[in-house]
Amino acid sequence: MAGRVARIAAQLRTFGGSRTFCSMAAATDDVLFDEKANGNMLITLNRPKALNALDASMVAKLTPKYKSWLADSAKRTLVMVGAGSKAFCAGGDIKAIYDAKKKGLSAKKCCTFFENEYELNQIIGTLPPNLTQVSILNGITMGGGVGLSVHGQYRIATNKTMFAMPETAIGFFCDVGGSYFLPRLQRNLGTYLALTGARLIGPQVAIAGVATHYVPEEKLNSLLEELLSSSPEEIEKILGSFSVPIQSLTSNLDPKDTLSETNLKAIERCFGEPTMERIMAKIEAEEEKEFAKICLKLLSKMSPTSLKVVLQQMIRGKDLDFKQCFDMEHKMALRFMKENDFFEGVRALLVDKDKSPKWNPANISEVDEKQVLRYF
Is residue 144 annotated as part of the catalytic site, yes or no? Predict the structure, then answer.
C-alpha cells in the first residue's frame, strides 16, 4: 500500500481543480439529452476537457428536465454518462467560489450554487417508480459527480472508475448527500473515506457499495444499447447479465487491497470512535502498521476543523433521513463560506499553489466542541 500515498496526493491535486461553482462561459451543449423512441433518455455530461465538471450552467439545464419528467407519468429509463473516457464527472471549479468571495460576494451568495446543486441531488434521490436512473461511472467520479449518481437507483462501476470524497483536504466537508450515503456504508468505511479522502478504484467501488454493479468497460456500448432500447422493468435482468457478481470481485481481492478483510477490520477498529482524538489514538496503536502509517500521513494534511466537523457529520447523518441530511448540509455549507479554512485550502492548492495551507486552528487539539457545533 506504500504507493497509495503518492497516488492519493495526486488525486487530491486533481480534486482541487475540479469542484464547480459557476462557469465563466456557459456552453449550450454542456449537457446533451437524447430521447429515444420509447421515451428512454440518454443524458451526457458534455465537458470532457474539464473532466465533465458540474457547473451552474449544467445544473440549470438538468433540474428543469428532471422536473418535466416528474410532471408526467411516463415510464422512462434515464441513463447518465460522461463524455469521453476519462471521467463521469470530476466535480467542479472551486476557485470560482474563492474568486467570488475575494470580490466581496457574501457567504449566502456563495452558497447559491450549493442550494441549486442540492435541489438536483434530492430530485435524483427521490425519483418516483416510473423514473429509473442508471449512472455509468466510467472514469473519475468525485464531488458533484457523486451527487448526480450515488442517490440514483443504479450506479455502474467499471475498471476505469475512480471514486473519492477528498473534501477535508481543501477545508470543506463531504456534501452532495455525503451525510446520507457515507455513514450507511459497511464497517465504518464511509467515515474512513470521508476523513482520509482515500479513493476507490474499479471493482472496489462496487465492493464498497458505492456502485450497485461492476461492468468491464469493453461491455459498456452493448450495455447502453440494451438499457436504452428496453423497458425499465428489464433493467435488473440486463444489469445482471452484464455485471460481474460482487462475491466474485471480493474473492479476487489482493490481501493488501484497501478493502481486503484485514484492512476492513482495521477500518472498523479505528474509525468507529466518536472523536478525532480517539480515532487518531486507535490508528497509532493499530497492529496493521502499513495501513496505519498511510492513514496518519493522509490525516496530517487535512484541515483539523474539517476533520472534526466531518466526523460529527457522519455521526449525525446516520440517524437522519434523506431530506434532513441535505438540510444539515446547507447549513454546513453556509458556515464553511463564513470561515477561513475552505478559502485557505483553495489558495494553497489553486491560487498560490504552494501546497502548504495554514489551517486555523492548526491542530486537532485546538478545535473545540463549541467551534464544531457552529456548523450544525
Answer: yes
Q: Could you tell me the sign of the dihedral formed by the alpha carbons of 282, 285, 287, 293, in that order?
A: positive
- Pick the catalytic residue: 30, 117, 175, 329? 175
In the sheet that holds 140-142, the strands lie side by side as: 87-89, 140-142, 162-164, 200-201
Active-site residue among 16, 91, 92, 147?
92
Q: Look up residue 218 and give its three cell numbers.
A: 469493453
Q: Which residues contact 218 (CB under 8 A, 6 or more apart)?
A: none
Task: Evaluate if residue 78 carries a pLDDT over 60.
Answer: yes
Radius of gyration in angstroms for the set of CA atoms belonging to the chain, rounded to a whole number: 20
Give the pLDDT confidence score for residue 10 in this predicted structure: 44
Whole-angstrom distance, CA of residue 156 vs CA of residue 202: 10
Q: Is the CB of residue 324 less than 8 Å from the CB of residue 342?
A: no
pLDDT tens digits along 327-367:
999 999 999 999 999 999 999 988 999 999 999 999 999 99
- Name the active-site residue from 143, 144, 152, 197: 144
Could you give the CA distance from residue 81 to residue 149 in angstroms, rounded to a whole number? 10
Q: Please give the model's pTM, rounded to 2 decimal places.
A: 0.91
Annotated catalytic residue 92: yes
How far, in Å, CA of 332 to CA of 330, rounded? 5
CA–CA gap between residue 203 and residue 65 (Å, rounded) = 32
Q: Is 35 a catalytic residue?
A: no
pLDDT band at 19 (very low <50, low <70, confident <90, very high): very low
CB neighbours of 93 closer than 8 A, spacing ≥ 6? 17, 18, 19, 20, 21, 22, 23, 50, 53, 55
Catalytic residue among 30, 93, 167, 257: 167
